[in-house]
Specification:
Length: 348
């Protein structure tokens, strides 16, 4: 399999069946940008620019989203600036503007960015780590603003401290969505991915001399270690990771893609050892066999999922069912394929 060609095929199929100019499309465009940078293909780079230049003009409903940065393409736009895919002044102004917005966005008493449209609820959820930290990291590195970088780190560490279960090392998804100040009791697969992708980008891009680098590295290693025992025989992680707590938990593609991406980056960076390379290879094989079809369509993805029912493991497993071609699946699978290409080159 040509990993980069398959990544592009996934994106093109996504565009043929759903709207990519949406919050979950942002991650797929991010995956396309990483694919373009890895390939060095100028036509593919131009394709990324064309997709991002559609923001915000084609986006009519983004004002109702949790993160205003989605209006300009979120982390994909910030990465395009950071990587040199887009160097125009408009992009610089856009990225800077929404990074500033994040610095003053609503927070809960612990300082975690909270639900912006329910002022007194203090609702927080781990999904935000993906939207916040990579954006501020890429923006800060390109624009030379240390405050952006530091706040990006701060947000993810605060969320980990809030959501990490000290016994298992795994993350719960949310607080306040199933009752005031009440935490969900899940170990949702994609929720693990939303947390670990923030740390993954820090491991790739944060300068090692940064005073919080070693702390971020420890959080990254600890979470990767906690997820390792829960990989299925077919190489995938499940909707709820701990099978003993939810015996009917089904294998899930988007969480698997994000976790595999993290493992691949950790191996490449020399942070994770050979057992994680074996896990990555097993996950890659499983994704190719069970999650990615020849036409670029996808399988086994959890649809939109924010604290279903009472927030218990059973609710996550029974109130959601795996979906073909769900928009959340494409970006994570694309990122894992890009990392597979990078590791193949390193091996060679």
């Amino acid at each position: 399999m040509n990993y980069l060609e398959t990544s592009v095929k996934l994106f093109d199929h996504y565009k043929s069946v759903a709207n990519v100019y949406h919050y979950y499309g942002v991650l797929a465009i991010f995956g396309l940008c990483r694919t373009a940078v890895e390939s060095g293909d100028e036509a593919l780079k131009a394709k990324c620019v064309k997709e991002l230049e559609r923001f915000p003009d084609l986006i009519e409903k983004h004002s109702a989203y949790n993160f205003p940065s989605y209006r300009i393409g979120g982390i994909a736009r910030a990465y395009a600036l950071f990587s040199g895919l887009m160097t125009d002044e408009k992009t610089k102004k856009y990225v800077d503007h929404y990074a500033d917005e994040m610095l003053v966005a609503q927070r809960d008493p612990q300082g975690i960015m909270s639900h912006p449209y329910l002022a007194t609820s203090n609702r927080i959820w781990i999904d935000c780590a993906m939207a916040i930290t990579p954006y501020l990291l890429f923006a800060g590195l390109n624009l030379g603003n240390q405050e952006y970088i530091d706040e990006g780190i701060n947000q993810t560490l605060l969320m980990y401290d809030a959501f990490r279960n000290e016994k298992t090392g795994l993350l719960h998804q949310s607080r306040g969505f199933n009752g005031p100040d009440k935490f969900s009791t899940d170990y949702w697969g994609r929720g693990q991915g939303w947390g670990i992708i923030a740390l993954t980008e820090l491991m790739q891009c944060l300068p090692k001399e940064h005073p919080k680098y070693e702390t971020c590295k420890q959080y990254f290693v600890d979470h990767c270690k906690a997820m390792l025992p829960h990989q299925s025989e077919r190489g995938l992680w499940r909707q709820h990771l701990v099978l003993e707590e939810a015996p009917d938990s089904w294998e899930e593609s988007s969480g698997t893609g994000l976790i595999a991406y993290a493992y691949g980056v950790g191996v490449e960076q020399g942070i994770l050892g050979e057992e994680y390379k074996a896990s990555f290879d097993k996950a890659l094989d499983g994704m190719i066999k069970y999650c990615i079809n020849d036409d670029g369509s996808t399988e086994l993805c959890c649809p939109g999922c924010l604290c279903p029912g009472d927030g218990t493991p059973k609710a996550y497993v029974t109130e959601k069912a795996p979906v073909k071609d769900d928009p959340h699946s494409f970006g994570p699978l694309m990122l894992s394929l890009v990392q597979a290409d990078r590791l193949a080159k390193v091996t060679v």
